[in-house]
Amino acid sequence: MPRRATGRRRAGGRRPRSLAAASSAALAAALVLAGALPASADTAPLDPADPATPVTVSADALPTVQIDGVVWQQTIIGDTVYAVGKFDTARPAGAAAGTQTTERKNILAYSLSTGQLLTGFTASLNAQALAVAASPDGSRLYVGGDFTEANGQPASKVVALNPQTGATIPGWAPRMSSTVRAIAATSATVYLGGLFSTVGSTSRSKLAAVRASNGTLLPWKPIAAGGRVNALVLAPDGSKVVAGGLFTTLNGTNKPGFGLGAVDALSGANIVTPVNDVVRNAGAGSGITSLSSDGTNWYGTGFIDSKMNGTGTLEGSFAANWTDLGVKWIDDCHGDSYSVFASNTAVYKAGHSHYCGNLLGFPETTPRTWHRGLAYSREATGTLTKDIHGYPSFTGKPAPSLLVWYPDLDTGTATGQSQGPWSVTGNNSYVVMGGEFKNVNFKGQQGLVRFAVSSAAPNKEGARSSSASTNPALTSPSPGVITVKWQSNWDRDNGTLSYRLSRDGRLISTQTLSTTFWKRPMMEFRDTVAPGTTHSYRVVVTDPFGNSKYSTTVSLTAR
Asked: Which of 16, 78, 377, 419 has the fewest CB atoms within 10 Å distance of its CB?
């Protein structure tokens, strides 16, 4: 696939748990818990006002239209999501591959709130699309890629469409010599990035700007050399354009310009970009894969392909300030990252992380485990530790919290690159991911999926580990004492779970504990009973939304 970034892979993980006091019933008892953990952030955090524990969307995969290939990028206008990529058909959520199909050539629109295909939008492209962006007023949809026709008419790698119908907007027809991979638009100007060397007969090295009104070429001409441009993002005031990609110089310099750099939106001249002093990904084997903005900060993702001798420093993501273009935080999870989106509470990432230990997250496993959707705090809440796996180390740099949001997205086959999601975007109520995955949370859902805040979600994601794994183990260390031990559980989108322990059908203890899939401490309760009596115990684990899992009942005769 085109966006590619591979080689070293996957990472993620971080914040643990809080220990709540145990309550015992009639008889004296004591709780012993191994290793209390910090509080977690999820759909129902203990303190949503804490910058380290903001609210996330649910991990429930909402029904969404599916595709038969890959989605490279999405954008949203109101309640409509536009998805572009390389695919031939769409089908409803729940439909098996090849059934109930509707032709959609490389572009489609669906409802953000329902997930259903919008039949009135019927644009068609004769080859894959890689970039999509809306005009600020939502009246136009700009699409770039490899295509040479849109709606059966000539279109040289970029086109402007009517967002309601998908019809081509006449009179807007820049002639790009090669692929367009990035688009950013103001009301007056459309900025383009990619692999092209000319626009019409005029030289432009991978970056260009055209009029929004009629597509005519503008004088803006920064020069990206040594590799393609993958991403563009505009400062909120329109004064700066940040470019990211595989290029090794920007206007003849590599600082800024080694895969990342800001330029003046009018003159194209370089602007000091301190992030590029830290994040330096460029060349054939590494680069910046995406850029986005929430109006206050801007964000990027990177990859390093060790098989291609990548010279990058970051496989994770970063947040930067618009005020000085300096680093706000670094997500040093290992495993290529492809796209990042910030809502008003959390930051979401698409990639294939396999290690997040540098920000106190999940460890490396053998064989590797890929976490393809992760969430982080908007604010820096700690610092990165020294890397122990031979990667470039960001020791001491500000880091976000890794939040409790772990949807399972699997590996697809459409691109041959063994990846899942390639893009993520959304608004303050929904997060949408696109890519080549075939299943989400182990249920069929190909290429597109939605997640929502708890008020719009079914909130059915509960404790994940089997009931048997939390069965209590009983011992009687002394006369009249029964010790009950069990392993804590974990949840895809709730860190703090409640544990109710019953003896002989009566509740004797309620405890809460925050956990993750990689940190599940043993829990213990010491019960006082009459010597020589037999008693049965059961543990019920419940998330904040009432989803419960029951252990089996286990019995023991006290000494």
From this structure: 78
